[in-house]
Amino acid sequence: MKSLALAALPLAFAIAACDGPREEIGEEVDNINNADGLLTEGPAEPMGEAMDEQAEAMAERMDETAEALDERADAIEDTDPVRAEQLKQRAETLEDTADGI
Asked: I need a surface site. Which of 13, 30, 49, 61 has the fewest CB within 10 A?
């Protein structure tokens, strides 16, 4: 029985680690605001979670756009190499921005 509990422990940590940075900050704010223990759950953690989800969706959209720009650049590389390079640079900038979100 103990081995089962020990085996499940890393999974529990992995699930707990799924919180995004904004959700974690929200949880900390809720804990600070609930120092007297009267609240069961504060509003900051769910708001942080929603913000994390929006940021993730925005990053995904930016990655999709970057991929489309790369495909377009590949398609016109033979006929318009200057424009293709511009598109590739825009795609790279989008990917870098998305990675930073």
From this structure: 13
Helix, strand or coil, per DSSP, at residue 19: coil
Distance CA 70, CA 66 (A): 6
Q: Which residues have CB under 8 Å from 10's CB, separation 6+?
A: none
In whole angstroms, give the CA distance from residue 79 to residue 68. 18
**Do the Cβ atoms of 88 and 56 come closer than 8 Å?**
no
Cα 15 from Cα 63, distance rounded (Å): 25
> What type of residue is 77?
E
pTM above 0.70, yes or no: no
CB-neighbour burial class of residue 16 (10 A; exposed 0-12, middle 13-18, buried 19+): exposed
- C-alpha to C-alpha distance for 27 and 46, rounded to whole angstroms: 8
Token pair belonging to 94: 């989008």
